[in-house]
Write a structure and sequence with these properties.
Elements lengths: L5 E5 L6 H11 L3 E3 L3 E2 L14 E2 L2 H9 L3 E7 L2 E6 H9 L3 E5 L2 H10 L5 E7 L3 H11 L4 H15 L7 E4 L3 H19 L1
Parallel strand pairs: 1-7, 1-8, 2-7, 3-4, 8-9
Antiparallel strand pairs: 3-6, 5-6
Length: about 190
Amino acid sequence: MRKGFLFAISGPSGVGKTSVMEEMLRIDGVLSRVVTCTTRQKRGKEIDGVDYFFISEDDFLEHAKKNEFMECSAVYGNYYGVLASTIFEKTNAGRDALLVINWEGFVKIKKAISRLPVFGFFIVPPSLEKLEQRIRFRNTDSEEVIKKRMSMARKDISHQNEFHSVYENESVSKTANNILETINELRKSVL
């Protein structure tokens, strides 16, 4: 049985990473979502163990102390981390793991994993104006946080060259299908 690949989706906050990932998972039965840990509070209808593992800061720091995270970082005042076990459980079973992560986390994971193929896909907005509209539409952030997110978006976009491919997200369905086309080409080329 072949080992699975690790595919990562990245892009600025509000660009639609999670929506694209969910569409990809709906279409492709070999992909399996990697659920990351966070110390932030749940938003809306998020479900623990499905959207994130929502854990306390103490639990997060304990995992970090034991070096159980493939990568971890502080973002907007909260901790986020990817447990190595959540990736290898999937890839060792022959499933392709799909992860949503920031660009810095992707670079760390790509350097840390040498025993399986790792590919990253970066999503950009049609424009920064549309990105700001999407962030405002979520209605979850203060004006100060929106300004920080937009500033970070510019920085994030400047790192798109770290990734295998870049996709403009005008339509979730189209973006998901375009990334899946690339994934299928990568699967064929490595087999």
